Amino acid sequence: MVTLFEAVVLSIIQGITEWFPVSSSGHLALIQQFFGFQNLPYDVFLHFAGIFAVLFVFKRDVLKLMSFNKESLRYVGLLVIALIPAGIVGFFLADWIESLFSNMQFLGIFFIASGIVVYSTKFSNEKKSEINSKDAWYVGLLQALAVLPGISRSGMTISAGLHRGISKRAAIRFSFLMSIPLILGASVLKVKDLVVSNIELDILVVSFIVTFLVSLVTIKLLIKIIQSDRFYLFGIYNIVLGIVVLGTSLI
After folding, report:
1. Domain range spanning residue 223?
2. CB 216: neighbour CB atoms within 10 A?
3. pTM of whole model > 0.85?
4. pLDDT on residue 171
């Protein structure tokens, strides 16, 4: 069961860490270790709540994709390409990945790895504003790593775009738009598990509202941080956190 206090805490953490490049899955794993509570379907529900903030912030871009003209169909095709690697990894390795959430040593290592990738964007340069199929594959490959706890999905996808010389605006847009089908798909797969987990309806409602509002603020703040060339600073946070988690697990 999830108490109201746990629901609010977990929802705030989810709303911040899902969109900041610091790994929501990794932070939820740490908090759940502290609370002694683990419920993967509930975690997926929090992701589902957060995606509505993405739809709100990027509503114009979503509507453009639904226009079904040549340009929108091309962009949808690129999103599909980028989603393939994560879909394959998630399908074949789901059980193994779920088992890693309770392993603090792996969590520390993954935080550090994610931090290195994010910090490396400090040395990237904008070269183009359009994304091609090679860019989409590269973004998708790095996103596939984010199925591991401690590795940030937004960190991997935005970093991948910046590595490829894509403009900040284009990298942000592609990263957030590709999160919509990915998270919605994962949510659908866990609906049955959430139903049988016996979490009270009022808890789910509170969790949804808190996650949505916090996500809304976080997404807008992240966009400003990226545009001001300070995205790489999240890498330092991840590396330090990873060292702490790894060191603690070895004591």
Report:
1. 4-250
2. 18
3. yes
4. 95
Q: Is 28 helix (H, G, I), strand (E, B) or coil?
A: helix
b vs e for 186-215, b when ≥16 Cβ sit within 10 Å of the residue's Cβ? bbeebeeebeeeebeeebbebbbebbbebb
Structure tokens at 209: 């509202």
Asked if 81 and 87 touch (Cβ cutoff 8 Å), the reply is no
Record the tokens describing residue 39, joined without a space. Answer: 């419920």
Inter-axis angle of helices 40-57 and 168-189, to 10 degrees? 140
**203-243 residue pLDDT tens:** 889 999 999 999 999 999 999 999 999 999 999 999 999 99
DSSP codes, 82-119: HHHHHHHHHHHHHHHHHHGGG-HHHHHHHHHHHHHHHH
> How many independent structural domains does the chain possess?
1
Query: Within a 10 A sphere around the Cβ of 3, how many other Cβ atoms?
Result: 12
Element (H, E) at 22: none
Q: What is the mean pLDDT of residues 58-76?
A: 92
pLDDT band at 45 (very low <50, low <70, confident <90, very high): confident
